[in-house]
Write a structure and sequence with these properties.
This protein is 17% helix and 18% strand. By secondary structure, it is an alpha/beta fold. The protein has 2 domains: 155 residues, UDP N-Acetylglucosamine Acyltransferase, domain 1; 56 residues, no CATH class. A hairpin with a 4-residue loop joins strand 14 and strand 15. Helix 3 packs parallel to helix 6. The radius of gyration is 20 Å and the shape is globular. The relative contact order is 0.10.
Length: 228
């Protein structure tokens, strides 16, 4: 066996509160990677109820990578929550149609070059209880979002952030180790390979994992990720 099937709705026996989200997703504007789970003792469908202000006419996407852990009441505020502030009124007349449909604000009709609409969560990200992710943010691989945090800025890979607005508490590893981990990208490995290397992933033996990635079988040396 090489771990639970990514097609399993409830991957933990006797725990209907935990779901692999990609098996519940029917929204073409949401992409969720394999093994990313949501834990909600009330109703796992609450995840999608907490993707807020996500309107088709805006066109933004929520993209979440593989092996993410998402706690109860995490909310993603999408770009439909934003109101244009350049005109005389912030009221979204165009959204109601019936003669108002052509009154799309310039900021939506012709977005500024380089503007980002999508909200992107990387791989192996842990988002704590009751956190809120604001529109258009990117959360890097391996990041940790503290409980009740409000993420208003992008989060760098392998950073721990917390607070309102969320601030970086520290990086989980040195810059060199983070670069190596991003190159390694173990979350993209086949399930069989991940299963075989779980000891090294859990213990932080990055040297052994790099040897596996390079096709070397000698994994005797140990180099745990114990630096700050």
């Amino acid at each position: 066996m090489f771990g639970p099937s990514p097609k399993a709705l409830h991957p933990m026996a006797g725990q209907p509160r935990v779901v692999f989200l990609n098996n519940l997703n029917t929204n073409p504007h949401i992409e969720i990677g394999d093994y990313t789970y949501y834990d909600d003792p009330e109703d796992p469908n609450n995840f999608f109820r907490n993707v807020l202000y996500h309107f088709d006419f805006i066109g933004d996407r929520l993209i979440i990578g593989r092996f993410c852990a998402i706690a109860q009441h995490v909310r993603f505020v999408m770009n439909g929550a934003n109101h244009d502030t350049e005109g005389l009124s912030t009221y979204p007349f165009f959204a109601f149609g019936n003669g108002w449909g052509n009154s799309i604000p310039p900021s939506l009709a012709s977005p500024k070059p380089g503007s980002r609409l999508d909200t992107v969560v990387g791989n192996d990200v842990w988002i704590g209880y009751d956190a809120t992710i604001m529109p258009g943010r990117t959360i890097g691989d391996g990041a940790i979002i503290g409980a009740k945090s409000v993420v208003t800025q992008d989060v760098e890979p392998y950073s721990i952030v917390a607070g309102n607005p969320a601030k970086c508490i520290r990086k989980r590893f040195s810059d060199d180790t983070i670069s190596r981990l991003l190159t390694l990208a173990w979350w993209n490995w086949p399930a069989e390979q991940i299963t075989q290397q779980l000891e090294h992933i859990i213990s932080g033996n990055i040297d052994a994992l790099e040897k596996v990635a390079h096709g070397t079988t000698d994994c005797a040396d140990r180099s745990p990720l114990n630096e700050e």
